[in-house]
């Protein structure tokens, strides 16, 4: 009987709660309660000018190998505003052909489940994922929204350590994103997105076309947003592509927008997504994004 390979299952459970107090600017601030199991560790939270809680997650193991699993569960209570990010890029080490016990390789997996209650807002902005040659990584993200809540996410993945001339080779990156809204009439699916990048898709003109960087951005607005507001936002976001390297698309979804990046530069993907992020904040009358404490997305983070 083959021996079971050693694996690691890290968990992170977070609850965001709105707390009112006269000493807080604007009268309230979003606080957090959390519990983690290694290799996860939560860093110290900071607070934006509008009371939003910015919480960085640290993955202390330095990367994922085949068989490792990560689980992140977030519950955003009513009237909370939160930004969840990560401290460093997530590295996925190659496993195909590395072990006699499992020559076909093993998958590293991440599962995220987010619940965003009424009048709450969650932004999920992790640093990029770097999948090494022959790495296997699958991630699943499920989001439950309510009529007045919203969710925003930006993700960047680099396929292979291109500075070393490396490609993904036989590896694979797989992603599933499901966003649904709980309404009095029942569950309504706002956005479903499933992707797999491997083998032929890496070189095809209808796939990655030999480009090493892929990015995905999605914003699902509160149900009260009007179609014309989304249309105006879409036009502005398309103009924001100016001066950036790569191929970028932006389209409207049921109540929000979805954007893609394909090209050679993680920096260009970050910059474009930051510009879109900024516009969503302005559209909602929220404070403009502060420079992220643990990593910069914007062009001039110190100005």
Written description of the protein model:
With 303 residues, the protein is mostly beta strands. Helices cover 12% and strands 45% of the residues. It is built from three helices and 18 strands. The strands form two sheets. Strands 3, 4, 5, 7, 8, 10, 11, 13, 16, 17 and 18 form an eleven-stranded mixed sheet that branches. The radius of gyration is 19 Å and the shape is globular. The mean pLDDT is 91.
Write out key terms for the chains shown.
303 residues; mainly beta; 11-stranded mixed β-sheet; 7-stranded mixed β-sheet; 3 helices; 12% helix
Largest sheet: 11 strands, mixed
What's the helical proportion of residues?
10-25%
Helix count from the secondary structure assignment:
3
- The shape is globular
Would you tell me the overall average pLDDT?
Answer: 91
Terminus-to-terminus distance: 60 Å
Total DSSP E strands: 18
User: What integer value in Å does the Rg equal?
Assistant: 19 Å
From the structure provided, what is the oligomeric state, counting identical versus distinct chains? single chain
Beta-strand content bin: 35-45%
Structural class: mainly beta
- The SSE order reads EEEEEEEEEEEEEEEHEHEEH
Contiguous runs where pLDDT drops below 50 for at least 5 residues: none
């Amino acid at each position: 009987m083959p021996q079971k390979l050693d694996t690691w299952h890290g968990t992170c459970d977070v609850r965001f709660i709105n707390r009112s107090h006269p000493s807080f600017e604007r009268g309230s601030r979003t606080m957090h309660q959390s519990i983690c199991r290694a290799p996860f560790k939560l860093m110290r939270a900071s607070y934006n000018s509008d009371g939003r809680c910015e919480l960085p997650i640290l993955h202390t193991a330095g990367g994922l190998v085949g068989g490792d699993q990560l689980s992140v569960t977030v519950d955003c209570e009513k009237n909370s505003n939160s930004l969840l990010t990560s401290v460093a890029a997530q590295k996925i080490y190659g496993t195909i052909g590395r072990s006699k016990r499992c020559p076909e390789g093993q998958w590293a997996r991440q599962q995220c489940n987010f619940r965003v209650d009424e009048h709450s807002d969650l932004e999920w902005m992790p640093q990029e994922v770097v999948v090494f040659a022959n790495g296997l990584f699958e991630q699943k993200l499920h989001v439950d929204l309510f009529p007045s809540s919203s969710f925003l996410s930006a993700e960047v993945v680099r396929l292979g350590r291109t500075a070393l001339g490396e490609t993904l080779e036989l590896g694979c990156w797989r992603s599933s994103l499901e966003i649904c809204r709980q309404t009095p009439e029942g569950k309504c699916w706002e956005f479903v997105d499933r992707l797999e990048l491997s083998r032929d898709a890496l070189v095809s003109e209808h796939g990655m076309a030999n480009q090493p960087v892929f990015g995905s951005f999605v914003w699902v607005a509160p149900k009260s947003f009007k179609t014309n507001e989304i249309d105006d936002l879409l036009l502005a976001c398309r103009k924001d592509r100016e001066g950036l390297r790569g191929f970028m698309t932006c389209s409207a979804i049921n109540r929000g927008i979805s954007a893609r990046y394909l090209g050679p530069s993680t920096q260009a993907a970050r910059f474009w997504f930051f510009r879109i992020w900024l516009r969503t904040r302005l559209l909602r009358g929220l404070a403009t994004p502060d420079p992220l404490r643990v990593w910069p997305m914007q062009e001039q983070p110190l100005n």
